[in-house]
């Protein structure tokens, strides 16, 4: 998209008027990635009154049952996804439900999210309801796809069954929170084979036994979700668990200096620095991406690389064994060779959205100009009642998503009706313009250009409108002067805080504090500072983090895990 670059000196206070900082030397330990780093899902479980009734009206039995379900799911995640499911809080509604647990799974899920925001003081990455009700659905669970870390979408509902079956349902609904889709579309296309033909795979809806394995497709989708900037809350190690402190569980809790885990785990890592949850002589630490040979890594050592253009690389602080929180750039930074904008940790362009949904590029601008002003099924700016809304001329790039060469089924969701295909001849070229209405289970339509996508010079899409950046609810980071965000020595994060280049420190990155030029092993790395001339720093009202494979939908768990796959009188384990 030509002409969308901000002027080097613009009238807003968050533009930079100087070139980016020259490359800096930065010490480096290795190549940690979001895939190799252990992730932690901090989970709150809410047990409804019906489950309490199923457990003979015993809070202790209900709690123990729920803990066992979580532990079984944790084993699957730990072994295959390098991800721990950590129970940080639990609530049992012994005196009656605190929300209306309805026959409709989606209604119950929506009410659970309201209760989470208004009634649960404990922070978590996800909140899941364990219900004793039999829902009027072919599904045994429902969850918001890609909703992890979101206060309004990080949750799921799981229907009661025996311990092993419910653990599989929890693995599925948490998988959906983590960006996994059901395997059926890719399996039917022949590109998603399950490695366990007998038991099946976790994100499948077929089989007669309780699955234990994630398919390669599910693992790839989870990795892609992380690579696209999702799951930023998963990288902090929990400091408080539901159960009382216990030496040997791998988590540093009250009264402990360290905890390298079981005897076997300590023998693999950390045992030389930590004995019986006490640091050995002269040891500073025993674990963490910023701990090496029982000592803190120096300030500036890379501990987490950026996963995409909109992410921020993290470095050790020099006074902690843990890598800093996983942050991304504040909305508005240019990306994809200045064709898109960072939004919620992702680079938003029409091309990327078409690739994610259909596997092909976006159509020519002329297609949007001709079709989206029609206000018909093949081109519009949304629905109004039973009809379609015409796009205003200036909003055509924020309306119905038009791509090229698409056919067959979308990569996610279900196609409603047929693919609309129109061909135009313009300036001696044949232009292919195609689109389709794709919906997820909750009725969410994936067929429109996403909020945060650039639609003109200093313009962004929001609710099918192309709006000037100046109309948005902008925030900014501190700087050493007007138009000097982070003093040109750092990048502004989604928390509104400066992440400084290695040789700079302070809230506004204005204090020069040079690093050693090399590590003790002599390893060095060239550091490229962020450009200070290409940002619009904005927090767009109503923004929701939507990963490329997510797009705000709702996922479902399938009841055939329960029906006919085991003896319901048995308390089988996964």
TrEMBL record:
List each copy of the Disintegrin domain by range: 244-331
List this protein's GO terms for biological process.
proteolysis
Locations listed in the record: Cell membrane
Question: Which InterPro entries does the record cross-reference, listed alphabetically?
Answer: ADAM_Cys-rich, Disintegrin_CS, Disintegrin_dom, Disintegrin_dom_sf, EGF, MetalloPept_cat_dom_sf, Peptidase_M12B, Reprolysin_adamalysin
The protein's topology relative to the membrane is:
Single-pass type I membrane protein
Q: Which cysteines are joined by disulfide bonds?
A: 303-323, 500-509
Q: Keyword Hydrolase on this protein?
A: yes
Q: Where are the transmembrane segments?
A: 535-558
Q: Which domain of life is it from?
A: Eukaryota
Per the record, GO CC terms?
Answer: plasma membrane
UniProt xrefs under Pfam families: ADAM_CR, Disintegrin, EGF_Teneurin, Reprolysin
Task: Give residue ranges for domain Peptidase M12B.
Answer: 39-238
- Does this entry carry the keyword Membrane? yes
Q: Which Gene3D superfamilies match?
A: Collagenase (Catalytic Domain), Disintegrin domain, Laminin
Record domain EGF-like: where: 473-510
Q: Which UniProt keywords apply?
A: Cell membrane, Cleavage on pair of basic residues, Disulfide bond, EGF-like domain, Glycoprotein, Hydrolase, Membrane, Metalloprotease, Protease, Signal, Transmembrane, Transmembrane helix
Q: Which residues form a coiled coil?
A: none
Gene Ontology MF term list: metalloendopeptidase activity
Q: Write the protein's name.
A: Disintegrin and metalloproteinase domain-containing protein 11 isoform X10
Q: Which organism is it from?
A: Zalophus californianus
């Amino acid at each position: 998209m030509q002409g969308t670059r901000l002027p080097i000196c613009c009238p807003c206070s968050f533009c930079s008027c100087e070139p980016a900082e020259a490359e800096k030397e930065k010490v480096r330990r290795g190549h940690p990635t979001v895939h190799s780093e252990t992730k932690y899902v901090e989970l709150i479980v809410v047990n409804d009154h019906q489950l309490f009734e199923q457990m003979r009206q015993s809070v202790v039995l209900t709690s123990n049952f729920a803990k066992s379900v979580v532990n079984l799911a944790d084993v699957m995640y730990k072994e295959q996804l390098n991800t721990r499911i950590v129970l940080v809080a639990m609530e049992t509604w012994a005196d009656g439900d605190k929300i209306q647990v309805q026959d409709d799974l989606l209604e119950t899920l929506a009410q659970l999210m309201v209760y989470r925001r208004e009634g649960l003081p404990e922070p978590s990455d996800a909140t899941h309801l364990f219900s004793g009700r039999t829902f009027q659905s072919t599904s045994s669970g429902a969850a918001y796809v890609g909703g992890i870390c979101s206060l309004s979408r990080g949750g799921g509902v799981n229907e009661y069954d025996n311990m092993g079956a419910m653990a599989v349902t929890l693995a599925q609904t948490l998988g959906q929170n983590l960006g996994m889709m059901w395997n059926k579309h890719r399996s039917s296309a022949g590109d998603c084979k399950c490695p366990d033909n007998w038991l099946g795979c976790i994100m499948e809806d077929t089989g007669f036994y309780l699955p234990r394995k994630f398919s390669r497709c599910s693992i790839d989708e989870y990795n892609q979700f992380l690579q696209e900037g999702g799951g930023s809350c998963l990288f902090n190690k929990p400091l408080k668990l539901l159960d009382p402190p216990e030496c040997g569980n791998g988590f540093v809790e009250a009264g402990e200096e360290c905890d390298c885990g079981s005897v076997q785990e300590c023998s693999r890592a950390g045992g030389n620095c930590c004995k019986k949850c006490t640091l050995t002589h002269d040891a500073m630490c025993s674990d963490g991406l910023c701990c090496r040979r029982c000592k803190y890594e120096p300030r500036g050592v890379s501990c987490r690389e950026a996963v995409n253009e909109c992410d921020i690389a993290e470095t050790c602080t020099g006074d902690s064994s843990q890598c800093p929180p996983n942050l991304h750039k504040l909305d508005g930074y240019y990306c994809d060779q200045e064709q898109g904008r960072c939004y919620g940790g992702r680079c938003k362009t029409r091309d990327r959205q078409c690739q994610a949904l259909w596997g092909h590029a976006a159509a020519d601008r002329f297609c949007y100009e001709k079709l989206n002003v029609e206000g018909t099924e093949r081109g519009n700016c949304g629905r109004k009642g039973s009809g379609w809304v015409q796009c205003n001329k200036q909003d055509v790039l924020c309306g119905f998503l038009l791509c090229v060469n698409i056919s067959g089924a979308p990569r996610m969701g279900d196609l409603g009706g047929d693919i609309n295909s129109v061909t135009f001849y313009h300036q001696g070229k044949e232009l292919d313009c195609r689109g389709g209405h794709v919906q997820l289970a909750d009725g969410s339509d994936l067929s429109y250009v996403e909020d945060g996508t650039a639609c003109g010079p200093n313009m962004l899409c929001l609710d099918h409108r192309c709006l000037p950046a100046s109309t948005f609810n902008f925030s900014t980071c501190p700087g050493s002067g007007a138009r000097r965000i982070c003093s040109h020595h750092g990048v502004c994060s989604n928390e509104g805080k400066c992440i400084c280049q290695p040789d700079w420190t302070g809230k506004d990155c204005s204090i020069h504090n040079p690093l050693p030029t090399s590590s003790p092993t002599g390893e060095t790395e060239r550091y490229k500072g962020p450009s200070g001339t290409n940002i619009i720093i904005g927090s767009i009202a109503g923004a929701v983090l939507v990963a490329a494979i997510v797009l705000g939908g709702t996922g479902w768990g399938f009841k055939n895990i329960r029906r006919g796959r085991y003896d319901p009188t048995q308390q089988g384990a996964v």
